[in-house]
Amino acid sequence: MKPSDEFQARYESFKKRPLVMHVHFPSRDSARAFSRAALLAGLAAAANVREVESMYVWNEDLCERQEWIVDLKTSAASFDALACMASKGHRDQVPAIYTSDIGILTLAYQDWILRHSLPASDEIDPGDPSQTVTVAG
Question: Can you give the pTM of this predicted structure?
């Protein structure tokens, strides 16, 4: 196997890895709008929306605010498109968008996540307006 073939095989395997993507929003409405858009676009299998109290440092100031976090059950292949959707129109200069590994899960649950979150093609264009949604914050 040539190195390029090995890389391609590893990349294809990586794209099919299920994960949880976390995105912070300033309001319940913006979190719900993003969740619906992600699900309807076929980029996530499920979304949980929860309220949290956040504290962080920004421009040397301690900030505190209520936020809404969306936890998406998705695949690594959908990360870029989802991150673009979440960033477009977000009020924060640097939106909190990150993932965590699911770890051990049943094959049935993994298959369900991947069946509902793998893009139809490998050609995801985050700049394509038909693949993005503006989420007002």
Answer: 0.79
